[in-house]
Design goal:
Strand content: under 5%
CATH class of the largest domain: Mainly Alpha
Order of helices and strands: HHHHH
CATH topology of the largest domain: Cytochrome Bc1 Complex, Chain D, domain 2
CATH superfamily of the largest domain: Cytochrome c-like domain
Distance between the termini: 49 Å
Low-confidence stretches: 15-30
Helix content: 55-70%
CATH architecture of the largest domain: Orthogonal Bundle
Length: about 110
Amino acid sequence: MRSENFLKKVSRYGGSAVLLCSMALLGMPQAMAGNPVNGGKVYNQHCKKCHGVSGKSTFPGVADFSRGEGLLRADSELLKKIRNGGGMMPAYRGILKDNEILDAITYLRKLHR
C-alpha cells in the first residue's frame, strides 16, 4: 500500500519536477557542440599558425590549448572571444561563421579527451 501511495505522489508531481528541472537547465550555460571534422579543417586553416598543431601555442601570450586549460570556459564565451578577437588574436567576425567557430572549439575539446 505504501508503494502505491508513493507512486501516486510521484506521478502527480513528476511532471512538475521534470518541468522545473528543464527550466533550471535552460538557465545554465550549455555546450554548443559542433562538428570536429570540419573544426579540424577550420583550425588548421585559421588557428594552427599561432596555436600550434596540437594546441601548443607557438608565440608567448597566445592561449595554450595543449593541456586543455585554455578550454576551461563555456563554448559561448570562447565563441565570443574568437568573434571579437583580443590581444594578439584578430577578430574572426565576418571571416568565420559561428558554426565554424563552434566546430573549431569542438575539435580542440576532442584533442584533449
